[in-house]
């Protein structure tokens, strides 16, 4: 594994000549209640991406610390990139990796709003350059959360500042978690949620969806291990015919 | 000072209500020879930005870790965003800060190739929203380098993996510097440099421009102090009539 | 209800003065096996949209007969619009409706690949003009399919040329269905499906996902009734506070 | 002839292997007075396109039911796509046909405002992919109108809701024509018409240009026959050297 | 009249305060046979624009010397701007004039291929800023050519390097005309001309359409006078209600 | 040397077959005080470009008479193109030259604000087509101004309506210079100049930067000769390996 934040150019040159796979975490600058930092999605995605890179001998790129978090802009500190800007970032990085001779790019996405621009860039890069891009959204997380966590999510597969995310943050960056400020909120979703452009702050007070109070680093560690295992299996499959 | 990587949404909300100024470092993922990491420009810009934020009580945004480094793409590990993508990032962030009620944005740029998209975004944001953007390119660096460093730059105001950058990295992130690999190179610039699109790797072997061998953390500390002092003076001027 | 394919300008003028809601079906030109026409998604969306328009007294726009069906381009007859073109269509129509004095737009989407450009246009129109856009993806379909159909879908909520779609087509446009050519196929999805850009034709032979052989018009009628009921309930909620 | 609204994917596959030519009608959603439907241009273009497809054994695509009708937006029910959106639609469809192995695309345009984006897309597709696009604007219509109709157009080659269009609609879709509401209007064109952006509603009251009162289905049939004959002759010429 | 090539800023400031109308000629860099210069369309448009500016007391902008001449690119020396670039130029200039306080913009177009981007920019500027743009394509030219010239055009209203253009050039810039090289060519237009993207050089040998041999400066003078008279009448009408 | 304003298509055809190099001057429509015309930058760039073309046997294109002069828009008569429009112009012309068989393009830039779009287009054209573009910004001007002129510039390398520009205009177009209106102004630059978007008119009254009063044609001639000599040397170097 090579962390491209720390590595030098000659080290990357050597890795490329052996068939380097780049791993890129994509997060967000987004409110996560009073107990988690604005960088939560980035920290988590980078944490998972680092372990995947370690497992596959990949080259870990600096993470993208901003995402499309438009529906959380009602809360201070959230800062979004538009979907077009997000796509442009992935296109530029993908083209650069392709020109440089990388074998493939694995994107580890930590924020729901980034899914579409990532998937679209993957498709367009394949069409334009043939460069293979694989994108992961914490595979296996639903099952793992079910198995490991005590509280229920506020909505199916909706994990935001809850036990899942808080536990993962306790495992990855405990100094950034204020457990004394963790408090549950189970907001009532509007019946039309997902069918019109609704800001989350119109029905969510604290920025928390679910109950983070029983979060522990051990649970976080277990969640990460499950996600990483599942991810590595899928990446291996993806790379096997390339 | 609030580091928005670590801060929570309510903390930012409080800061905004008191007139928050955002500080954003912009770096690059770019080769810096065999002794400096690919993240050199990001680490340096973030280091300077952090001290400026401390001095002015600003809110430090997560840095932009990619820049437009097209002319270094001949060296492995360099990854560029296009000028249009860079501009889009600054436009999105500027619009978001403006909507959120921030007072101003100060951009600390650590990479030459980012100057134009930053300046253009500053102009367009002013026209579109009136939001004030201030952008700094290490003010006072030339004089400081002259005063503090022993070696000459490879070309006037051209500091790349040389004594200036290496000293600053020794001050900011010594664990990322391989001084044993530091070696001087004074490449001969083509007479037509700057008048056509020339890849640096066509006339530069090691990725180093100048002589990093006499770099020290103390020199780096002195350089940073001078740049920060000068920057804070200018930021204060900029903010004084806003 | 006014069908804007048939209506005249003065008729629309009258309707607008009373607070007209536009209803727009979005389909696709996409392969649907040997027994369903390429227009299947358009016919279904328009059929559902028509009943919604009837129920709410809406103005039914001509349907968009092309969608983003890139992953079915391996089958002849599929023709896609890019996500950017799709978005542009919705933006133009939304702006026009807003300028014309319409009260709102309800989009009835019949094709998975259109979801993102529709949702994005809804968001952008709200930001740009405040014009309210509501978008439906056959609400209640999963439960209804479960209740009404005999066969299982090839994957959860994946209905393509199967018993669900074939039954709905038998209810809406029986002359376009070749039941004698209907045959089941339960393709094995690649484990990495949804994580890379995969053409469906690489693992699906016939263009059918599931088993259309037991389809009937009565089932189709029941499915449509359930979807329309659920849709109308949601549209009423959406309109109630506008 | 294959109608791609009704055809299945395997049927198109067979046709392509024999050298399929696609035929695409482009209309508009535009006011046509009190006696003709908003879809008039689409119905007419599709009617003509269908006969051309029949004559040449072409594959008839679903029509584009929206056009650039900006200068009729002063009348309710008109809904425009911008020229850029129109062009994007033709580019996407042309690229798709080219990738799919079609031999050529024939566009039958039924609305003046669409001419430029169609011609521009044809040019760009030729440059980009070499794919041949032929575009028809009712060739021979002026002579035919002169020969067949009793009334004069409101301006040379300006046929809008007049005897020409009403007769053609009576031939193609009589149920959509309200002859009892047909009334003549010969508006006075501003002297600067065509030299500045003028909305038609500023000098036209009823939406009619000319005199539709003597329209008959027989005249419409004769007009269509002449246009189709002329079109087929030109298409044959176009295809002969491809 | 003020020629903005020669005028100073204070002079323009004075003119604006009295309600300045800008006049902009748009030409092309396009082949015009062996006897006329590549700048023919620019010279002619600027000549006509200058007289219009004189007549109305307008401010004459520097001409746009490049146009969209794609179908003449088969001949050396032709250089085109794309329609999008042309539009962007007019949008930028129109916005600038509007911000500066100009009363209106009159565009004098000398090249057929520029018509659409000019008309589109005029429409968009009106929508975006309300700034009035008037665009002229040599009004009255057909009648004048008929009255004054001896030869026939190669096609109706198609004047290219023929008696009309050559005479006008003899009147405006005789030193740029090589009458000894003037020779007639009446090319046979393909039957499908205007219906597909056809380069003129595929059926035109010399670049001349028509017969320039009987051209004289006196005829050119007469043509220009007629066009200018007609133009000024129309501009006055346009300006009268502004 | 061939001036493409005057030349005919066959003449260019001949030149291309021998390896033609195009020379393009880029100026601005920008205020230059009360004594110099708005076209100053265009006249100067074209004057220098003409001599370079003469020296290298190049083909002189019509100049681009508009530039990006946004920071002078506070003065009447300034009209800007956006950086994107500027870039598009250079891309279109570069592509056209490349398709036409030209050997290279030399751009002579006469306005600071155009530098970036020119350099960017040069880079993108090289990547897209390999077509070589060389861009000059009056090389050697600083040294020449120092040697030849009596007054100091208002800021280092900042020459605007001062002795340098006025002398060059006296040499190139004396009829456009009003020496009786020439007056010195040495404005005080804001300390934050270049770090935020500042209109020059906020700190500059007359539009003059420096002292034009001692300007002479002889000095202008000398300046031009030095710049042209230096330019030709560089162009020869650039062309030598192509």
UniProtKB/TrEMBL annotation, chains A, B, C, D, E, F:
Pfam families membership: Creatininase
UniProt family annotation: Belongs to the creatininase superfamily.
Keywords in alphabetical order: Hydrolase, Metal-binding, Zinc
The keyword Glycosyltransferase is assigned to this record: no
Protein name per its UniProtKB record: Creatinine amidohydrolase
Signal peptide bounds: none
Keyword Aminoacyl-tRNA synthetase: no
Superkingdom classification of source: Bacteria
InterPro entries documented for this protein: Creatininase-like_sf (IPR024087), Creatininase/forma_Hydrolase (IPR003785)
Cofactor annotation: Zn(2+)
GO biological process: riboflavin biosynthetic process
GO MF annotation, one: metal ion binding
Lineage: Bacteria, Pseudomonadati, Pseudomonadota, Alphaproteobacteria, Hyphomicrobiales
């Amino acid at each position: 594994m090579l962390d491209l934040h720390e590595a030098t150019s000659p080290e990357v040159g050597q890795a490329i000549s052996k068939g380097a796979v780049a791993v890129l975490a994509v997060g967000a600058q987004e409110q996560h209640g009073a107990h988690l930092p604005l960088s939560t999605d980035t920290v988590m995605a980078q944490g998972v991406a680092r372990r995947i890179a370690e497992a596959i001998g990949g080259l870990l790129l600096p993470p993208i610390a901003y995402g499309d978090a438009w529906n959380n802009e009602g809360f201070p500190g959230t800062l979004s990139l538009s979907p077009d800007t997000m796509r442009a970032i992935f296109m530029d990085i993908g083209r650069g990796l392709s020109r440089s001779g990388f074998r493939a790019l694995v994107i580890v996405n930590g924020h729901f709003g980034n899914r579409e621009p990532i998937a679209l860039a993957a498709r367009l890069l394949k069409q334009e350059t043939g460069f293979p891009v694989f994108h992961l959204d914490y595979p296996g997380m639903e099952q793992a959360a079910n198995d490991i966590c005590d509280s229920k999510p506020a909505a199916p597969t909706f994990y935001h500042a809850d036990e899942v995310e808080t536990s993962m943050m306790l495992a990855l960056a405990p100094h950034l978690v204020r457990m004394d400020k963790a408090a549950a909120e189970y907001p009532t979703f509007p019946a039309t949620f997902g069918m019109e452009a609704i800001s989350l702050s119109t029905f969510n007070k604290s920025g928390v969806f679910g109950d983070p109070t029983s979060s522990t680093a051990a649970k976080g560690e277990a969640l990460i291990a499950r996600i990483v295992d599942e991810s590595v299996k899928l990446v291996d499959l993806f790379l096997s015919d390339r």
